[in-house]
Design goal:
The complex is a heterotrimer of chains A (366), B (298) and C (337).
Chain A: E1 20-31, E2 38-49, E3 53-57, H1 64-71, E4 80-87, E5 90-91, H2 97-106, E6 108-111, H3 125-136, H4 141-154, H5 160-163, H6 173-186, E7 191-195, H7 203-220, E8 223-228, H8 231-237, E9 240-245, E10 248-254, H9 255-260, H10 265-273, H11 312-316, E11 322-323, E12 330-331, H12 344-347, H13 355-363
Parallel strand pairs in A: 3-8, 3-9, 6-7, 7-8
Antiparallel strand pairs in A: 1-2, 1-4, 4-5, 9-10, 10-12, 11-12
Helix pairs in contact in A: 3-4, 3-6, 4-6, 6-7
Chain B: H1 20-29, H2 32-54, H3 85-121, H4 123-138, H5 141-152, H6 156-183, H7 186-193, H8 198-235, H9 246-253, H10 262-289
Helix pairs in contact in B: 1-10, 2-3, 2-10, 3-4, 3-6, 3-8, 3-9, 3-10, 4-6, 5-6, 5-8, 6-8, 7-8, 8-9, 8-10, 9-10
Chain C: E1 6-18, E2 26-40, E3 45-49, H1 56-63, E4 71-76, E5 79-80, H2 86-92, E6 96-99, H3 113-123, H4 132-141, H5 158-170, E7 176-180, H6 188-205, E8 208-213, H7 216-222, E9 225-230, E10 233-239, H8 240-245, H9 250-258, H10 264-269, H11 296-300, H12 304-312, E11 318-319, E12 325-326
Parallel strand pairs in C: 3-8, 3-9, 6-7, 7-8
Antiparallel strand pairs in C: 1-2, 1-4, 4-5, 9-10, 11-12
Helix pairs in contact in C: 3-5, 4-5, 5-6
Classes of the chains: A alpha/beta (366), B mainly alpha (298), C alpha/beta (337).
Chain lengths: 366, 298, 337
């Protein structure tokens, strides 16, 4: 141990809990494609408060990942991004590339599904964490390395001191993801954006990573945006939940609001689609059809074609987010009130096979 | 369920139906150099096959103008015997194209089958077949081709046969590589689980999926064959008079390089144009067949 | 009890690890499946669960004779599949079919959907006209529009592609379907549709399912009985009800407690049993009990004499008073949900 000690508490005085740290308004992302412009994100608004975990949930193609890539300015240059991303009193979309580089990593840390995207394969993990430490504290290399070992220990890597001298390729996927989290902690960020951080991992390892993430968030006092398709992960981790569909938020509220009293048929259908481990088997309520293609999107509610509550007004105007059960629980549905007290099986059909065809098939034998 | 439920039109496919071929064609169109090359190449073919008919001079015809430089009457000039060089180049292009396209098709057919069988079965079959391919690849190409052509050569199809007999081994390596990766794909396993025979798997699944890479390779083979034919004819082992080819024309003109440079430069230019355009077309095809390429080029 | 439809007895599958170079000596083996036995009755669904690398997919492929077993037997209706002739297996393929995990990779990108679904009929020479009517019925059955038959697989969504895969597997009217992670590549709302479809097909057509999955929630939903695999071995097996209400093996317990519940209050109040570390290499599995290196019970509750037993003696898969078999010397059922 060296005599130098690094203060484990956050290096800079952070504001009070509840203060807004990140504010995204009117975010739009469009990609060109051979079939016409792809509107991947269509007007996303959210605020992130200090210390909270905002879960963004949605299926593939809902725009949940593109939203955060746009916030971090990590999209290819062909993407057209408009709107505003307020952080630290500045609009991130207007910063120069070099200013943005300073924000990325130090003030906003990003954790990807594949940890290899953020680790350098030619340096040991200890060196990479130590480098992050030295970027923020004026300490000797040895002290920084000690801090790196401490951080590895915090994300529960066994034999942290030995592991610090490993190269990324010598570690398992779960270990690597923990190293990425340790780097994020070393940077002492205000915001951590975790994009499907556990999707590539087995469940037992996922549980370990979620613990490590929680530790990182509490240690740094950062706010977290947790993007995932797994409603279970959201239920366990998120304070507030934003459900996205076809590039737009369709429901926002506390975890309790969204899970117990969903006011958007899509959220309801999603919850009814999940097989539950804690109950004996019951019929699932799949949502018919598939998400709309974001090329040539028809007017009206994008969920309309799949929605059993669908009426003519849904074809004409796309519903805006509006308050439902409380001022903080918003849903984008013309018929939100009709969902009061409704269970998924009351709204969605559980039959999927064509029974005439099935009977015919059962009759003939080739 | 509400009464007002309107049966929505078929919204499952908002993008219009397109066959694989249409997709490939669309993507090809986005490769500008390839499209330009294709146009140039088509013009060249038209010139060689139709232009020769329409042109006022015949390739074998002796005109009274000996050794004139390029003019309106003789755009590529004439040689010392008074033959119109433009007509000569057109005929040379025709023969050279015939040779190279035949080589490409022949070598591709044999090589693809050889490589697919080796790659699909693996094990000792693969080892044996690929050692044979390797053996062919180790032969000093020009020397063996020259020797073979010298003994059997003369007419263009024999030259094509000789070159193809050496080039199929290249194709077999490419085909084997593609098949090796395709073999591990789940749809091949699915076919096996259905009880499909090996022949069916190779012909119905592996070859159609390898077609993209094989076609790309075929274009490159055309360019390679045209260069090898040129070298052989230049060395005197290829096409022999009264037939002619671009290589032979270059060879005949080498003594006139300083006195009548046009005799040398025009056939040379044609060789370069053919090789270049075919390479670009191959490039475009490669991009077009790459299913990863769904976005427009940046 | 009547004869089971499928019985798997002591199946072992080792993949050789070879040295590089010309000679390619065998220098070891990945023990993908080590002595696995189970039975499947007609009309029943057996869930084979485990994390990646536990050998569940390899087991499924051995059952279908897509890869040969190193040792052990697979019996279908009492007939041995291991070492059967090619022609014999071809006949049996009509009764044993598989649906793959990846709906993108398991459909030939160069074939229109009609052709894909008709392929099994052609291979087995059924229907002179290529079964055009049959393909229509199959497409309707799985919820696809027959008009879309001329389109290529890449034009369909993941869920639709998986339905194409199911239609293809059903074309020969099999008795046993091996479902290898059929829904894990799909979005939740789509996954539910495929699961319900499988339910309906089973009750209408009397199919038996061997359902391979890493997702315990899905398995609880669909399976009658479950076998939990770890590092090439079955560690616990029982009815769905037994396994979820009274899991006895520490690995099953850890697995159940690691899966997050989509219910915020329950999820935050749950008891957690966590395992440490990562999966050991299947080329060099731990001695004795294969789970001991990550076992929370081994690490926290056992005395050193008890631990010695775990290190030296591989536990057998037998009922240890929990009403269903588990392979832990110190099995003890716990309620976790």
């Amino acid at each position: 141990m060296t005599s130098e000690q690094i203060d484990l508490a956050p290096s800079r005085r952070k504001g009070a809990a509840g203060e807004v740290v990140l504010e995204v308004s009117n975010l739009d992302v469009t990609f060109p494609s051979g079939d016409g412009p792809v509107r991947a994100v269509r007007g996303v608004d959210y605020t992130l408060h200090r210390g909270e975990v905002l879960g963004i949930v949605g299926e593939s193609g809902s725009g949940k990942s593109v939203t955060s890539m746009a916030v971090m300015r990590l999209l290819p240059t062909t993407a057209k991004v408009t709107g505003e991303v307020r952080f630290d009193g500045r609009n991130l979309l207007e910063l120069s590339e070099s200013e943005m580089t300073r924000v990325r990593g130090s003030k906003i840390a990003m954790i990807f599904q594949d940890p290899m995207t953020s680790l350098n394969p030619v340096y040991t993990v200890g060196a990479q964490i130590a480098e992050a430490v030295r970027a923020h504290h004026d300490v000797s290399k040895a002290a920084a390395l000690d801090r790196a070992v401490q951080l590895l220990d915090k994300v529960r890597i066994p034999n942290a001191r030995d592991r610090a001298s490993s190269f990324p390729h010598e570690l398992s996927g779960g270990m690597r993801q923990r190293v990425v989290i340790a780097i994020a902690m070393a940077n002492d960020p205000d915001v951590i954006i975790a994009d499907e951080p556990t999707t590539a991992l087995d469940v037992t390892v996922q549980a370990q990573i979620l613990d490590a993430l929680k530790a990182a968030q509490q240690e740094t006092g950062a706010a977290m945006v947790l993007i995932t398709h797994d409603l279970g992960v959201i239920a366990g981790q998120a304070d507030r939940v934003m459900v996205m569909y076809a590039g737009k938020p369709v429901e926002i509220g506390t975890a309790e609001d969204v899970f117990y009293t969903p006011r958007m048929p899509y959220s309801l259908g999603l919850l009814g689609s999940l097989p539950r481990m804690d109950r004996p088997s019951e019929r699932l309520t799949p949502i018919p059809g598939s998400p709309p293609s974001v090329v040539n999107m028809p007017p009206g509610c994008p969920f309309g074609p799949r929605c059993p509550k669908h009426t003519e007004v849904c074809d004409e105007t796309e519903p805006e987010l509006r308050a439902t059960t409380s001022a903080t629980h918003l849903a984008a549905c013309h018929h939100a009130e009709a969902l009061v007290g409704a269970e998924a099986e009351d709204v969605f059909d559980t039959e999927v096979a064509d029974h005439d065809a099935l009977a015919q098939l059962a009759e003939e034998t080739p | 369920m509400p009464e007002t439920l309107v049966k929505s039109p078929d919204r499952e496919f908002t993008v219009e139906e397109r066959s694989q071929a249409q997709l490939v064609f669309r993507r090809f169109l986005q490769h500008r150099a390839a499209v330009v090359s294709l146009c140039v190449f088509v013009v060249l073919i038209l010139l060689a096959y139709v232009g020769g008919w329409l042109w006022k001079y015949d390739a074998g015809q002796y005109t009274p103008d000996n050794s004139v430089p390029p003019s309106w009457d003789h755009p590529f000039g004439t040689d010392s015997a008074g033959r119109d060089q433009f007509a000569q180049v057109l005929r040379g292009t025709r023969i050279s194209l015939q040779v190279s396209v035949s080589v490409a098709i022949l070598a591709t057919l044999v090589g693809t089958l050889w490589g697919s069988v080796a790659g699909y079965f693996g094990g000792w079959v693969d080892t044996l077949m690929m050692r044979i391919s390797d053996l062919v690849l180790t032969l000093p190409l020009i020397a063996v081709a020259a020797m073979l052509a010298h003994n059997f050569g003369g007419s263009w199809y024999l030259i094509a046969l000789v070159i193809a007999a050496l080039y199929w081994a290249y194709v077999s390596r490419v085909a084997r590589g593609v098949v090796l990766s395709l073999r591990e794909k789940e749809f091949v396993e699915a076919a096996k689980a259905l009880g499909a025979s090996d022949t069916r798997i190779i012909l119905r699944h592996l070859v159609p999926n390898a077609l993209g890479s094989i076609l790309v390779n075929l274009t490159i083979l055309v360019a390679l064959a045209i260069l090898l034919e040129t070298s052989l004819s230049y060395l005197g082992f290829g096409v022999t008079p009264p037939d002619t080819s671009l290589g032979l024309l270059v060879s005949e003109a080498q003594t006139a390089l300083t006195t009548r440079p046009w005799l040398f430069y025009f056939p040379g230019l044609f060789i370069i144009i053919i090789a270049l355009t075919i390479n670009f077309i191959g490039d475009g095809l490669r991009d077009a067949f790459d299913p990863q390429q769904t976005k427009v080029r940046q | 009890m009547s004869e089971p439809l499928l019985s798997v007895r002591n199946v072992v599958k080792h993949f050789p690890i070879r040295s590089k170079g010309l000679v390619r000596r065998q220098i070891g083996a990945v023990q993908a499946v080590s002595d696995v036995s189970f039975e499947l009755a007609e009309g029943e669904t057996l869930g084979l669960v485990g994390e990646s690398g536990c050998g569940k997919s390899t087991t499924a492929r051995v059952v279908l004779n897509l890869i040969p077993a190193t040792s052990g037997q697979v019996l279908y209706k009492g007939r041995e599949l291991t070492g059967i002739s090619r022609g014999g297996m071809r006949e049996l393929r009509r009764e044993l079919q598989i649906v793959f995990q990846d709906p993108y990779a398991s459909l030939d990108p160069r074939m229109p959907v009609n052709e894909i679904i008709a392929e099994p009929l052609r291979i087995h020479g059924l229907y002179a006209d290529g079964g055009r009517e049959q393909v229509r019925t199959l497409m309707q059955t799985v919820g696809l529009k027959p008009e879309h038959g001329n389109r290529y697989a890449h034009e369909f969504s993941g869920g639709q592609r998986q339905r194409i895969g199911i239609a293809r597997a059903l074309a020969l009217r099999p008795k046993l379907l091996v479902l290898d992670e059929p829904v894990s590549a799909l979005d939740v709302s789509i996954q539910a549709g495929v699961l319900n479809l499988l339910d309906e097909l089973q009750s209408e057509l009397g199919l038996s399912y061997l359902f391979v999955s890493h997702d315990l929630s899905v398995v609880r939903h669909i399976a009658d009985r479950i076998a939990v695999m770890y590092l090439g071995q079955i560690v616990e097996t029982g009815t769905s009800e037994q396994l979820f209400t009274a899991p006895a093996h520490p690995y099953t317990q850890a697995l159940i407690s690691a899966i997050p519940l989509p219910d915020p209050r329950k999820e935050r109040a749950r008891e957690r049993i966590t395992v440490v570390g990562d999966l050991p290499s299947p080329a060099n599995p731990p001695s004795g009990c294969r789970f001991r290196t990550r076992c929370p019970k081994f690490a926290n509750e056992l005395t050193s004499e008890q631990q010695t037993r775990c290190v030296e003696q591989p536990p057998e898969l037998v009922d240890r008073g929990d009403g269903h078999p588990s392979s832990c010397h110190y099995a003890e059922s716990r309620a976790l949900l």
